[in-house]
Structure formats: C-alpha cells, structure tokens
Amino acid sequence: MEFARGSMLYLDDVSVSFDGFKAINGLSLMLAPGEMRAVIGPNGAGKTTMMDIITGKTRPDHGDVIFDQSIDLTRHDETDIARMGIGRKFQKPTVFETHTVADNLLLSLAGKRGVFETLLAQITGAEARRIEEILETIRLEERRDDLAADLSHGQKQWLEIGMLLAQDPKVLLVDEPAAGMTDAETMATADLLKRIAGEHTVMVVEHDMEFVRALGVKVTVLNEGSVLAEGSLDHVSADPHVIESYLGR
Ligand SMILES: Nc1ncnc2c1ncn2[C@@H]1O[C@H](COP(=O)(O)OP(=O)(O)OP(=O)(O)O)[C@@H](O)[C@H]1O
C-alpha cells in the first residue's frame, strides 16, 4: 500500500487466468494524478482484461490494484468503483440518440434520476453552467440542440466522453477512441483528451500510432499480459522486443 503513495492508479504484480490461461501475468503499472497514459499492444495482450480488472468487472487472482493511493479496488464491485470515480468509455458510443446533445449531458449529470423526471425538472443554474463547460471542452457548443442521432461518429464519441466528464470521474479509461474516425476527427480527439488530462487521470488504449503520437504521452506496451516496454513512443518503437512482438508484424 505504501508504494501506491502519490499515485492515482497502482497495479502491482497482477495476474488473472481464464481456464488456466494467464491473460494478465505479473502486470505492474502506475499512473500519477492527472497523468495521461497510452497503452498499446497486440491483440490478446490483455488490454481489455486490464481495464476489466480496474473497473471491477474481473477479479484478479493475485496482485494489488490500488486507486487514489489507498483504495483497494479488488474489494469493490463495478457499481462502487464507478461511483468512486473511475469512468470507462467503451469503443462503441452509447449516447441517447433520440435526445439532444445538451439533454444527453444533463442526463449524465443527473445520474440515477429517471429520464422523464430529469428532462421535465427545472434545470439548475449549476447544471446549466456545467453543461456549457462540457460542451466547450468537447467542442459541440453549436450542436447542443441537435439530436445525438444526427452527429457524426466522431462527434458521438466526443459526446460520450462529455457524458463521462459529467459524472466528474478522477480516472477515465478510454478504449480505442479513434477507431472508425476520419483523420481530422482522430486529431481532434487527441486534442480533446489532452484538454481533459491534468484535471483527470486518463488511460487510453489505442492501435492507431498517429493518434498515440499526437497524444505525446508516455506509452506502455503490453504483451502476453505484462508490460513489455514503457517510455516515449520513440523509445518503445525502437525497442527490439516491441518491434518483434507488435510493431514489426
Ligand atoms: N472471459 C474470458 N474467458 C477466457 N479467455 C479470456 C476472457 N477474457 C479474455 N480472455 C483471453 O485473454 C487474452 C487477453 O484478452 P484481452 O481482450 O484482454 O486482450 P486485448 O489486448 O484487449 O486484445 P484486443 O486488442 O484484441 O482487444 C486473450 O487471449 C483472450 O482470448
């Protein structure tokens, strides 16, 4: 526990097996508060399983998973962990298509209140201000009154990131945000995540190397369930083990 001091997310010697196969195998990783980290690695490296462990969806067989210096995540379930401030964005956007962009954000702000209750209730000044702030962060101010269904794929992804922000998480786990995006959307997404980091700790899993380069952050390369290399993109790209297991394919 003491080693987790000063960290927002701390994994030490974490392992999990499925039917005798070690999907995560002695994985150790530490993110500082406000840090953004890119995680890359070949298919089956364990990236999704690592996020499942952090969010409480999968319980590790072994190892420490510590959030915010002292919270042992292996003792909490998914709902608790989300409530404590770890938000996860899956690859596919899941916005409410039949509601406006602003109402999607309002629904996320309101959390557990029902849809009708929330949309019929008088919006508070604080809620209105927070929605404007998020619209600005995700650069969708001009689309606020449009239905989410009418957004482009990239814009839906940004809205979903905004919906996560509305829940005010300390940590955001983001799975392949650039998948299916145009080049321009990909670069805009990198900019968006850079705006979010600092105030939030962000872990991004991504295969698109142009995107990872645009993030300009420390990269962790996973392979066979553990860390193969860590450092700048240039540093890990020059690592012979990384080239052999991933980039050289
Ligand atoms: N519930 C499960 N039961 C059995 N095997 C699993 C389970 N979840 C994951 N695995 C296996 O664990 C390994 C790691 O999978 P994981 O999905 O975490 O990799 P990944 O790095 O996210 O890959 P990708 O880039 O393809 O998403 C894979 O070999 C996968 O088949």
TrEMBL record:
Keywords: ATP-binding, Nucleotide-binding, Transport
Domain ABC transporter, residue spans: 9-249
GO molecular function, one term: ATP binding
Source organism superkingdom: Bacteria
SUPFAM superfamilies, per database record: P-loop containing nucleoside triphosphate hydrolases
SMART domains per record: AAA
Protein name in the entry: Urea ABC transporter ATP-binding protein UrtD
Organism encoding this protein: Paralimibaculum aggregatum
